[in-house]
Amino acid sequence: MLRVGVFGAAGRMGTEVCRAVAGAEDLELVAAVDPKSAGVALADLCGKEVGTLAISKDASQMSEASAEVVVDFTVASAARANLEWAASHGMHCVIGTTGLGAADIEALGRLVSAGGVNCIIAPNFAIGAVLMEHFAAVAALHMEGAEIIELHHDKKLDAPSGTAIATAAAMASARSERGMEPWGQPQDMPGAAAEPSASQQSWNEILPGARGASSNGGIRIHSVRLPGLVAHQEVILGALGQSLTIRHDSYDRRSFMPGVLLAIREVRFRKGLTIGLDSVLGL
Question: Minimal CB count within 10 Å: which of 6, 53, 105, 154?
């Protein structure tokens, strides 16, 4: 039995992770941490299937229970401290927290190396979303332009989503590896050229931001936040006389759990820092 602890156990994703871990025959939920719900019986939030654990206010429960893998679904500010603690205590990490930037990823890589542990961090644990990103990167080699629309619930704090950013990066990287030109140099990105390239359209935005945010390779990303949504994304690619839409929808947070459980089981064997589930899935 692999011993697992969860940071952010009382949150929307945290409660689902606790249920999923408790229901897996080869995993044991041994710790649940969430300062805002300290002392609450986890069963009151997740149901009796999670056992008799009480939510702890700090990470001490993780070490007392000898957790081998910790899962973090919190917020970026809390995740930084949680991950530093886990690495220093020799615990492997699975991270689904969004809003972590490039500097955070670099720091995480150093922490993992110094602690001699492994870590899998992914912007999206839904298997379908990972496949969407993969298919979009393939399609980017054959189409003349693309835009991304990502839609999430109105409580999501970061925009664009990590999935949208990762998808744009994968598409741009695929074109770069083939020696293909980007679709347009985004002018509002650090290091962008002073003058628009010949391939970049000059847009007259009547309302600022109407064309979305420029990301890797000139791919525009549009973010929608509405009640009733969970996590949705479509990549729209266009070419002469045709378009291709690749869309993924998560209607329930349970859609992320197969990917989370896969990462928990695999992280022990993935040396160092692994970004995304694509390599874990063999893509």
Answer: 154
